[in-house]
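Quick review question:
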């Protein structure tokens, strides 16, 4: 039985869900984990007044390999979803979420906001996230999506395909999602690593 409630608990549960080892309703996660919700609410302090479809997560001075996340979001019927606000966060190049020793911050240190354009596209410039510093989980990026029509939702956590910590079960489940697979191949362009992601909104909100 899982008894630890906190941010690392949520990350573990989400990883197990992606691996197909547990099944937990997303709304239950949001209600059951006050630590994640505290981080989310504090993240609102970084929310910009105006959104653009191209944004940053890590500053240009952040140590790490330059990394670009290009994304597309569609509605449940497959049509492009414009005006969707995306919040994304990930670990730094040393595998930490919150800063030195993971104790400095209660919200995520490397996070950013964007909004889809008329074609449902967005882009984040950042650095490549490292796996968890204790080797428990492969490199990945978390996304939350907000829209007037479909509310606030978690998108699948996106993993980087060349990370050896990604399990065979995760790869199989991702591949079964077809165009919406969440283990993504890396392309290198002019020394910058690039991944393309695609999300489909659900009919209703998660939290």
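Suggested answer, residue by residue:
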């Amino acid at each position: 039985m899982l008894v630890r409630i906190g941010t690392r608990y949520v990350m573990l549960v989400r990883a197990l869900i992606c691996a197909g080892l547990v099944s937990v309703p997303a709304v239950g996660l949001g209600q059951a984990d006050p630590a994640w919700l505290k981080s989310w609410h504090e993240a609102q302090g970084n929310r910009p007044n105006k959104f653009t479809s191209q944004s940053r997560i890590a500053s240009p001075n952040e140590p790490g390999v330059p990394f670009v996340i290009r994304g597309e979001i569609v509605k449940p019927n497959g049509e492009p979803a414009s005006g969707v606000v995306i919040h994304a966060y990930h670990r730094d190049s040393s595998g930490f979420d919150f800063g030195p020793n993971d104790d400095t911050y209660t919200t995520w240190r490397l996070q950013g906001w964007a909004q889809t354009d008329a074609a449902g596209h967005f882009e984040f410039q950042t650095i490549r996230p490292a796996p968890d510093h204790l080797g428990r989980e492969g490199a990945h990026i978390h996304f939350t999506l907000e829209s007037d029509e479909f509310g606030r939702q978690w998108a699948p956590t996106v993993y980087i395909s060349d990370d050896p910590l990604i399990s065979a079960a995760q790869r199989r489940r991702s591949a079964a999602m077809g165009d919406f697979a969440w283990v993504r191949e890396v392309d290198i362009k002019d020394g910058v690593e690039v991944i393309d992601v695609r999300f489909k909104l659900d009919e209703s909100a998660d939290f």
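Why it works: The chain has a mean pLDDT of 86. The longest strand covers residues 66-74.
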